[in-house]
Specification:
This protein is mainly α and 399 residues long. It folds into two domains: 185 residues, Growth Hormone, Chain: A (Up-down Bundle), CATH 1.20.1250; 203 residues, MFS general substrate transporter like domains (Growth Hormone, Chain: A). The protein has 14 helices and no strands. The chain is globular, with a radius of gyration of 21 Å.
């Protein structure tokens, strides 16, 4: 692979991964406007614009990895992009809230494909330091997109309507699909493909669920992501409506996203010296201490602490999440090297399903204060700690 082709491949993989992040984060400033335009009576129902997308992704995560092993990487990406386009067209033309949610679910299902299969492209074509470089760049994109995407959504709203956001996402996805078709070669030859097997997927699920380390860290990932989805669903209501931040909403979101980015950078630098387990233990305990202190503040301020205090709390929480996200996933898959692909799909499905359900509970509990969100971070954080402690206690007893 020439240097120019190598750079092009990195950019393409980053673009395929950015589809998911852009589809979520550009929506955040617009959920209130969309809900009002589509006649949503219950303010908490606007959160479904975000959670419906996660719901679709949950099931797509389980399907597209094994499917790409069967039909090839490019056909699987095409299928996902086509499904995403159908869903986004439904959202673009929606005149009712039900159509919007159906479109978002379909789009989320399709978006799982470019995100998951692009990682398979990297594994197929590269190894060693070259693979590490690509993954590092992709993670950088993942850190940057949440910082800038809400600002893009906010700018679109200032210049036009929310439907233009969906139009932009459609154009972006079409460009990615055409780029894959025109420039990307198939990386999984026919002789290496495996028939799609529900039985094999089921067996991988059983093995993953029975291994305490894999199950413990999968549960922990689900609990942490549940609180994150609860935040994503309510962030517009909290910062725009409760704290009247309006145009500054994108700033606050970018600030908290930067906390995750800083944590990931530090984790990459120190994980080999300190170890994943010590880092995650520190992170979960720090997040619990912060949440307990915040619960006290919430109690004495009747659920509306000063904005700088809330901002500091969220920064600490997301910094801790940045230390946990990747490490929990790696620890969950550590014993599953012999079925890594299948186990990754199963683990991703399980924690996505948990986070979708748990995040929806937090969002629907929103009552005009930040109390449900803080309780969610504290409660799910405590459950994540219990899950990891159980996993580590059983590690020595597991053959």
């Amino acid at each position: 692979m020439t240097s120019s082709r190598y750079v092009e491949f990195i950019i393409l993989v980053a673009l395929l991964n950015a589809i998911t992040a852009m589809s979520i984060d550009t929506m955040l400033p617009a959920v209130g406007v969309i809900a009002n335009d589509l006649g949503v009576a219950d303010p908490n129902h606007r959160q479904f614009i975000i959670t419906a997308f996660f719901g679709g992704m949950t099931f797509g995560t389980l399907i597209f990895g094994p499917l790409s092993d069967s039909i090839g990487r490019k056909p699987a990406i095409y299928a996902g992009i086509l499904i995403y386009i159908v869903g986004s067209f439904l959202c673009f033309g929606a005149t009712g809230f039900s159509a919007m949610l159906i479109g978002r679910f379909i789009a989320g299902f399709g978006a799982a494909s470019p995100r998951i299969v692009s990682m398979a492209l990297v594994r197929d074509g590269l190894a060693g330091s070259s693979m590490a470089r690509v993954m590092s760049f992709v993670m950088t994109v993942f850190m940057i997109v949440p910082i800038i995407a809400p600002s893009i959504g906010q700018l679109v709203l200032l210049a036009s309507t929310w439907r233009v956001i969906f139009a932009g996402l459609l154009v972006m996805t079409l460009i990615a699909g055409i780029w894959v078709a025109w420039r990307q070669e198939e990386t999984l030859p026919q002789e290496k493909r495996r028939p799609f097997s529900v039985r094999a997927l089921y067996q991988a699920g059983i093995e993953s669920c029975r291994h305490p380390v894999t199950m413990g860290y999968t549960l922990a990932s689900g609990f942490i992501f549940a609180a994150l989805i609860g935040y994503l669903g309510t962030s517009q209501q909290i910062f725009v409506e409760l704290y009247q931040q309006g145009p500054l909403f994108a700033f606050w979101f970018a600030l908290f996203a930067s906390a995750i980015a800083i944590a990931m950078i530090l984790n990459g630098r120190f994980v080999m010296k300190i170890g994943m387990r010590r880092i995650t233990k520190f992170a979960i305990r720090l997040s619990l201490v912060a949440s307990l202190l915040m619960l006290v503040a919430v109690y004495f301020t009747k659920g509306l602490p000063p904005l700088p205090l809330l901002g500091l709390y969220c920064f600490v929480i997301f910094f801790c999440n940045g230390l946990m996200f990747g490490n929990y996933n790696a620890l969950a898959l550590e014993p599953m090297g012999h079925i890594a692909g299948m186990a990754s799909s199963v683990s991703g499905f399980l924690y996505s399903l948990m986070s979708f359900a748990g995040g929806s509970l937090i969002g629907q509990a929103f009552n005009g204060t930040v109390t449900p969100l803080v309780i969610g971070f504290a409660g799910f954080g405590f459950l994540a700690m219990l899950s990891t402690e159980w996993a580590e206690a059983r590690r020595a007893k597991t053959p």
